[in-house]
Fold this sequence. Notes:
eight-stranded antiparallel beta sheet; 8 strands; mainly beta; disordered N terminus
Amino acid sequence: MIIRPDSAARTAENTISEKWDIEAQDSAFTSFEFNRDQHYIAVENDTNRTVHFGEYSMPQIDVIDLENLGTIVIISSDTSGVDFSFFSLDDPETESFLILVFMDIDRVTQEVI
Length: 113
């Protein structure tokens, strides 16, 4: 299943192929990227741009479990973006992000507002 039912990134194996850029200055992350091989890359919004990577799974259509990092829960989505909460394994506090534009990593680059 996929977050956006109309997405070209949808596959039958509960995987996605997208990059989500986050431009909010106070966000803990600048981006999340997922591929069809069930791997993710997450880049922190710190001075070192710390990169986390590993495998992900989608036990439900609106839940993405990131190995050794945390869980993303989709709140809402449409063709222009997705609102989600991130639950860190290290910090149980919830952070919400709004991604304004989707990008299928098999397509060209995107402009994020």
